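Office hours follow-up: a student asked to see two folded examples consecutively, so here they are.
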Amino acid sequence: MQNKGLIKLFAFLFGIVSIYQLSYTFITSKIEKDAKVFAANSIPESEEGYAAKRDALEARYLDSIGENPILGYTTYDEAKKKELNKGLDLKGGINVTLQISVKDILKGLANNTKNPAFNKSLADADAASKNSDDTYLELFFEAFEANKGDSKLASPDIFANKGLSDVINFQMSDAEVKPIIRTKIDESIVSAFEVLRERIDGFGVTQPNIQREGNSGRILVELPGARDIARAQDLLSSTAQLEFWETYKQSNPSLSTFLQNANEKLKTLVVTENVEQAPKPETELDSLLSDVAQDSLDLSQDVNPLFSLLLPSNPGGNALVSVAIKDTAKVGEYLRMKEIRRLIPADIQFVKFVWERPTEGSEVVDLYALKSNRDGTPRISGDVVSDARADFDQFNRPAVSMTMNTTGAKEWEKLTGDAFNNQTGIAIVLDNKVYTAPGVSTGPISGGRSEITGDFTVNETKDISNVLRAGKLPASADIIQSEIVGPSLGQEAIDSGFMSFLIAMAFVLLWMIFYYGKGGAFANIALILNIVLIFGVLASLNAVLTLPGIAGIVLTIGMSVDANVLIFERIKEELAKGKGKSLAVADGFSNALSSILDANITTGLTALILLIFGTGPIKGFATTLIIGILTSLFTAIFITRLLVDWYISGKGRTLDFSTPITKNLFKNANINFLSKRKISYIFSSVLVLIGLFSLFTQGLQQGVDFVGGRSYQIRFEKVVNPSEIASELTTVFGSGTNVKTFGEANQIKVTTAYKVDVEGIEVDNEIQDKLYTTLQKYLPNGTSFEDFKVGSGDSAIGIMQSVKVGPTIADDIKNNAFLAIIGSLFVVFLYILVRFRKWQFSLGAVVAVFHDVLIVLGIFSVFGKIMPFSMEIDQAFIAAILTVIGYSLNDTVVVFDRIREIIAEKGWKAGENTNQALNSTLSRTLNTSLTTLVVLLAIFIFGGESLRGFMFAMIVGIVVGTYSSLFIATPVMFDFLKKGVQQGKEE
């Protein structure tokens, strides 16, 4: 081997850099462990709210030592930025995909036009977007072409308005306007991206990840380690639409008249049933409602649809009335009815009704009546705020202090002057919720300084000031996909992932020594270095380690073993020919190189396809697989070679690459594979037909990734009956709700399509509330809603993980999965065609791959409802299928490579030499398959419930792939050769 000194230097430096990069992870782990111990010793479990107090104490401890020097080259704060990133499934936290509303941006650019063609085109684009892969903007342009009539995009009441006058004029054609609008949309999405990034930076999560997804208007945000999930969701989806309005007086006679008339009108519109109910315990709220029923608002002894839901608000305040939170939806529905809106008196005809922001633990909220105008625009909007910061008011309560620009200061002085003169209040509204509505007692306020007060926590004032400083989003941001993992589940994933990793490593290391003796020991040294390099590269690239990523690393162990097995088997063949040890080693490495490269390139191509089309954890799997392929090639080809050359260079040293037990295994193998091809064709055809029949009749269990919906992994203290729970939840969420045991008998997975088309955190909260209410009897006494919710603490009871996928993104995931599989097959077909120069080789490989994929799909269809673990088809399953494709091709390419080599020397000879080639690779095929299978079985058994379906698909794929490379790929290739070529008569 040439340039040994250079390779040694490179290997040494590569190893040192990897260890250096990983040192930051070891430092932060040690310090955080010390912080946990300190907090646990300081706050006993008997103390109320101990978990939250311990978290706070840990944070203070880490802050206090953050700048202290460690080992002379770093600090905790610096090491935290450079440690190996852990993904959501290992650390807990939240991962969301936000869809920036292009519709909102278009309406804003068109100045909220009333143009009928424009608005109909928006409605048509809404409908079309549910069943189309095109962007919303392109769908809008198509709809506008169909609806425009005499209008055009450059009409004065569409885009040729004052706001766009510098880039669009009346004379422009639609073709000229479209690229300008595309640019404006892109600018708005970039603006949203920057706003979100600034908000996330102020949230306080280490190693957040935020990235745009092409031109789709989607933004992916991952906050590993985030514990306050509700706070994170509010931060991400809040538009930060700040508005200042003047309120109407509580005693305004026109409002009183309107409420009276609305109540009377509703008596004729609403059918109210008086159903006798069994007496129930009376709460404080019920008592309050009972008292109000007797007061002056109840003007009739009859049923009052509206007045029966209203409570008197604080006398002297600026709210109109109060309403129980449970009744706000009904009251809002009444006030939005067209028949009711017509009753509003002319002097308040543009009144805007807005709810107060509900505070934690409150059962009642206020309803405000705001002075609005024909266009529904506020007196002052939030874009005049130049600065905002968390502060404390005169009573030392958390508040938000704001400073306005010059324009805002003038408007603020005018607004406060009007409120003082009219003796009304000023409602400060953020995202359509009134945060506070104080009166003005000292006349107009100059200078543009103002303050938002309310029943805030310190974190809330930090978040509000953060979003106001970052600015408002240019459009609403809907969470169309989310995954939330509780911290305790993340820790379990780490424990189970590394347990499977260590068991797999131990087996492989022992097996290599058992089978290859000293040569196996050298391969083990190279393998351990390979693992160090993989983790080092991941840390240096700031890549994220996920549970599928650990699976990718463990699979890399099998591939690294495969390369060494190929080399050792070729060296054994050269030694058997009587060559000297140095020449045998040199020829063995040289002859194995072609097979190693072909096998790893085909697997690498499938990993690359995964990286392009996959999302989230699947990208993590692909990343580690690609890194693992590169490091495996380096360690197997160079490091193992250095060690072997070093050893055999010593006097009197022998290296047989076998042990007494394994020395003659497969040595005289002489199986006539081609003669058995008819049996294998029949056997495989039967398996494939059974699978296809099941696929067409039963189908596959598609996960929420592909059909949309929400799924929840819920753990209980005791064993539960999923059928019983399914019956109860079906009455709550409707048909299609699926409940099944997930892992242990005290854990279930609930999947529902309930309100899957409705976006917003309110729906997520509603579903969690319904789950808690329905399942409360199965939970330990005293389990609160907060304890039950995702991410509410380290408790091992309640919702451990939740996933939400909107129907639109589910279609995209399904399409990407299909493209990934087809793209992988096409790329590999071309590679094999170029590499082997005969289309029969490509055909044999692709037929074998289709055979493997159909059998895996068939097994998942046939046994999907029988197996005691989840066999849903999701993104992880697609990753497994692509890995199976890669492995099957890996195996097939090694076999084809040996066939090509032997045929080049001896010709075809009616299949005799083809059989010889297959027999000569048998030791390698079974060795690699066995080690890879044991590795996968270790993950399957010890790697956690979420990986079981993924691993099962790969286990089946490895078994079937090994079989197909011998009994399908080669026979198909041979059968499609010309008769003359088969007999060796022509080439």
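And the second, which I mentioned at the end of office hours:
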Amino acid sequence: MSDAATACATDETLMERHAAAVRRVRLGSRAGLVALGLVLLYLVYAWFAFDIPHLIRTAEPQRAVLLATDSVAHKVHVTKSLRNPGFEVAVEGERTATYEHLPDWVRADAAGEDVFVDLGEGHTVTIDGQTLTLTTPESGPITVTATDDGVRIAYSGEKPDWVREGYNVQTDTLVKFDARPTIDRRVQVTRSKMEIHRFFLGWEHFFFPFGSQLHGKSVGELVDLAFSAPRLDPDQSNLALMAETIWTNREWQHRAVAIALLETVLMAVLGTLTAALVALPLAFAAARTFNRIGPVRFALRRLFDFLRGIDMLIWSLIFIRAFGLGPLTGALAIAFTDTGTLGKLFSEALENIDKKQIEGVQATGANRWQRYRFGVIPQILPVFVSQGLYYLESNMRSATVIGALGAGGIGLMLVETMRTSRDWENTLYIIILTILLVVSMDALSSWLRRRLILGR
């Protein structure tokens, strides 16, 4: 073939390749556009299927801010009853935290008819019989009078946007005055009572209850008291009294929280350990390398699929129904789910081991069990340990969720504090402890992994 013919054939080949490349690029571009269109179509569908516009309209960001504030602060109520003569100042959410002596920002006569409350930063409230006057730096005084039918409000100017009025739709009368000039101040008036709220940053009575003789003492006073006489309780030292008072705090329930954390840890450890010990021998029987009986392998693999195919929460509900509430149901739910998952992982690791190491052990005259011990176990031990520790970390979080369903532990306490909607500081306390528990378990598992696998 002449050089001209060869060059012509080469040019035709290059042109064909170029055309094919262009077609592939165009096809890829079209496929990308189609995929992008499908994604956008799905997002539009999800927008309406999940009714996102309604969620946006009904969202209450101010309530979210209020709950966040309630998580890091405590609220003191100043309450005057209008039906039965009564006036008190108390910490919200605590059964016995009623002030016998008024705080310095509250002044009142013995009958509670003449009351002055300083809410700070120029916000004040004055109560004179059935009439309450709210004064703020931004607006003039607002006078609210409780009547037999509801309330009567007199503004010195325009109604502020932080004031809400409640109406009885049947009688068309004003029945409630609710003012929140700032996120940490609130005033409410109805025909039956007047209530003033003031937030203070910090968790009140976290260590010592309101009625304790240790309440209100400074750190220096507590240190001096811990190592000095006389004893506040003749039966024990002051240091022991402090520890017992903190441990038995009825409002923060430190002892109950510690026991619940221990239950959660035991639930996760027992469930994961049971799953690992059961999954390992089943994995040998499910691995093609060690079991030539096909039906047995098939049955075991389907068993693994069944156990891990049912979510841990579903197993928990089943066991709660069968055995009742308690940590055992959570441990069983974790064990059943992780047996399927770990069994699959272990069997796949066994099928990928190096047979030469087994043959080397066999050449020494080792029997079957010795071949497993010295030829197989050392190869799968890193997988066994790393996967077991990973699922132990994950199950710490899962045990909290399972506990919320009724299995006990810290999850159940977390749900109980959230149901009240008044103890969000306790909720944050439990959440922080749960996070610290997970972080501690992560650090511990990392250390064990280094020690057992890397030898350092």
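Two things to take away from it. The longest helix spans residues 3-49. The mean pLDDT is 85.
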